[in-house]
Write a structure and sequence with these properties.
Elements lengths: L1 H28 L4 H18 L7 H24 L5 H19 L3
């Protein structure tokens, strides 16, 4: 159950951080305004809180592993929200990052 909880928390954290950054991007770069930027700031703040809920107590480990989740999640976000088409190297890099997440977080200690 702990691994499942951790994976779900990483997914929620990715949604909040990537979504928050995207909302700010939309507010500034696409001229959608302060409301979008404010929602983005709130989402980024919520991401910071969600990251603290990981079962592991080591900040460095959590943030390092989350980096891999962020890489893969950012590519998926681009596909879903911006019509981005990843090439095989994007996909390969994301898979390498996710393997790194698994090693960092879930290898037996």
């Amino acid at each position: 159950m702990t691994v499942t909880k951790s994976i779900l928390l990483f997914g929620l954290a990715a949604l909040l951080e990537i979504g928050g950054a995207w909302l700010i991007w939309q507010g500034v770069r696409e001229h959608r305004g302060w409301l979008w930027m404010g929602l983005g700031v709130a989402a980024l703040g919520a991401y910071g809180f969600v990251a603290t809920l990981q079962p592991d107590a080591n900040f460095g480990r959590i943030l390092a592993a989350y980096g891999g989740v962020f890489v893969a999640g950012s590519l998926l976000w681009g596909v879903a929200m911006d019509g981005f088409r990843p090439d095989r190297w994007d996909v390969t890099g994301a898979l390498v990052c996710l393997v790194g997440v698994a090693v960092i977080m879930y290898a037996p200690r």
